[in-house]
Structures are given as structure tokens and as C-alpha cells.
């Protein structure tokens, strides 16, 4: 079967807690570019990150440890930064830890349907 | 304004003529992968190619000369091949010339809404 045929699973949006740290630098909604967002999503690990955040988030944002990837931390840091700099995720610094969540409203406003494709994606068998 | 906000322009699908040459090698529908397709589309020139084919096609498929790009032919050949190998376009050899069209039905079946994002895209001002 094609990787994203069928109905997309439901995207969870958790309420924004109060008192969050400021977001790290990111593009504004007006600066979001389709080519840049697609480039950030053109990687199975980054699709996995975004999909898991969309479908399985247990809190507002998550640090890279939550994902349970068996990868060097430096590599993961790079991927999380690439997603933030493309405008796919928002990152905040909590002490020594950075946590990410997906900019669902911004992406739905600019690129309707794109996150449904990510939610429906599955890694190659 | 974000690059793809608003309503997507209508995608034109021209009827398939009879007696076409065989398509060049390409992934089957079952082999289409979201990460690969997004990678192929994460480039302004390739988005321009696909968008122009979707919205302005005057015949079933078009050679690279039709686009009027001021780029070396070798660079264009590379981009058209990348689109075909990702499964975004289908290419056929007509004598010395290759012509491309977008695999609209296949992409809509696998990645609903993706081509509307391409159609709504505009190059950076």
C-alpha cells in the first residue's frame, strides 16, 4: 500500500500551559515557506518525530529523550533544530533541556492538509 | 502573506492521447514514499515546474524548453529526472526530447491535498 493512503489519524492538540519559557528563534507565520517545510519533512526520522508529536503527545511539548531514538544526541539535536528553523516545530528551553511541539495552527493555516499527510505516514516496512 | 494561504487554483488534467511512447522508469504507485516526494518538491525550481504543469499545461506533456527557464540544460535535466524518480512526474521520450506531466491521479490517491499545496505555492517575492 502507498505510505499515506487512507484516512489520517486524528491530530491531538494539547492546551497551552501558562508560564512557558519563550520560544527559541523561529520563522514567523508570514515567513513560513512551503519549500522549506517540505525539505524539513523529507526525512524519515523527522517525519517520525513530527508524527509522534502529532499523535502521541502526553504533554504540551517533549524533549528528545521522550522519543526513545537509538541515535547520538548530536544527530537528534540537529534534526530537532532543522524542524524548528523550518517552522514545523516550536522549541522552548527548560533548564538544560529543549522541548518541542508542532505548530499545528500555523501549519494548518498556511499549508492545509500537510499535517494530515504526516499523520498518515508510516515508515517503510 | 504565507506562501500558500488561500484557495488553491484549479489543477488542469488534459486527456491522455493514444499512441504515447512508454514512460521512462519510475516508481509504481505502491512504491511512492511521502519522504521522497516531499524531498523532490523541497526546491523552488522543482515547485515551479510542477506548478506550471498543473496550472498551465497546453498539451498532455511538455519538454523542458516549454518552461522558458534561463538555466543550463544539464541542470534542468537533473531536476526533471529527480521529479520523475520520486514519482511526481511521468516522463516519455519523443525522439531526442523528453516530456513530463504530473502524476495527478497517483499523487491524489496517495497524498491527498499535496498537489493543491503546490498549486497554491508562489515563489518568494
Topology:
The structure is a homodimer of 125-residue chains.
Chain A: H1 34-40, H2 44-56, E1 62-63, H3 73-86, E2 89-94, E3 97-102, H4 104-110, H5 114-120
Antiparallel strand pairs in A: 1-3, 2-3
What does this structure look like?
Two copies of one chain form a homodimer. Chain A is of the alpha+beta class and 125 residues long. Helix content of chain A is 38%, strand content 11%. Chain A has five helices and three strands; from the N terminus they run ααβαββαα. Chain A has a three-stranded antiparallel sheet with strand order 1-3-2. In chain A, strand 2 and strand 3 form a beta hairpin. In chain A, helix 2 packs across helix 5. Chain A is globular and about 40 Å long. The N terminus of chain A is likely disordered.
Measured by DSSP, the beta-strand proportion of chain A falls in 5-15%
Number of helices of chain A: 5
Compressed to H and E, one letter per element, the order of chain A equals HHEHEEHH
Q: Which two protein chains have the largest interface (Cβ within 8 Å of the partner's Cβ), and how many residues from each?
A: A-B, 30 and 30 residues
Assembly type of the chains comes to homodimer
Task: Report the end-to-end length of chain A measured between terminal Cα atoms.
Answer: 11 Å
Query: How would you classify the helix and strand content of chain A by structural class?
Result: alpha+beta
Strand count of chain A:
3
Q: Tell me the helix content of chain A.
A: 25-40%
**Based on CA inertia axes, which overall geometry of chain A fits?**
globular
Major sheet characteristics of chain A: 3 strands, antiparallel
